Here is the input.
Amino acid sequence: MLADNLKQVEENIQKACSNAGRKRESVTLIAVSKTKPVSMLSELYDCGIRNFGENKVQELSEKTDQLPNDIRWHMIGHLQRNKVKQVVPKAALIHSVDTYRLAEEINIQAKKINRVIPVLIEVNIAAETSKFGVSALDARQLAEEIAKLDNLRVRGLMTIAPYTQNPEENRPYFRKIKELSVDIAKENIDNVSMGILSMGMTGDYMVAIEEGATMVRVGTGLFGARY
Ligand SMILES: *Cc1c(COP(=O)(O)O)cnc(C)c1O
Here is the structure.
């Protein structure tokens, strides 16, 4: 049953790639498995999925221990500094860095285990008061500050677009964050690259891909509704 969902999502991704004249390999599908049981993750693993996204440190930790170790775990939720120590050994990529203080703590914990952690800067592109993330204006400055830390590397930007029934409404936001990432890349900041653009969820991932997403985070479309 999850195989059917995956087939549909995969078809949509391919369609969006071809609309945009992009190669399928330029987009990574992250299966957002928050609240879902390990058995369902296993089912998608058996279909070939190797990237999973979780938004809570505790849940991510528990699941990593129960599933094969070739999975790349993505921390996509708001991260508190006191949880960093737990997530740093497990996460392949942290999508949600939005303060220097958080980056500093990731740096300290990563240094302790001799890792260099790739991170994304979370941008609140629509300036919604309900959301975490830095403003578009502050993103560049945060990238410059984080660049000085030895044990993490800024690899791009992440955004959560507004909830909407009509994905076209988010197209201008996706376009805007793509422009921001191009602008930051042009600065050639040491240790900062802008190769990753993590944007697009079940409701709008096709539009996000058309506007340059390199990672889409799909939960409901793969696993069904969360209750
Ligand atoms: C839950 C979540 C998603 C997936 O949302 P769906 O609408 O179920 O696809 C993507 N990104 C983040 C940050 C999330 O918390």
Notes: The two ends are 18 Å apart (CA to CA). The chain has a mean pLDDT of 97.
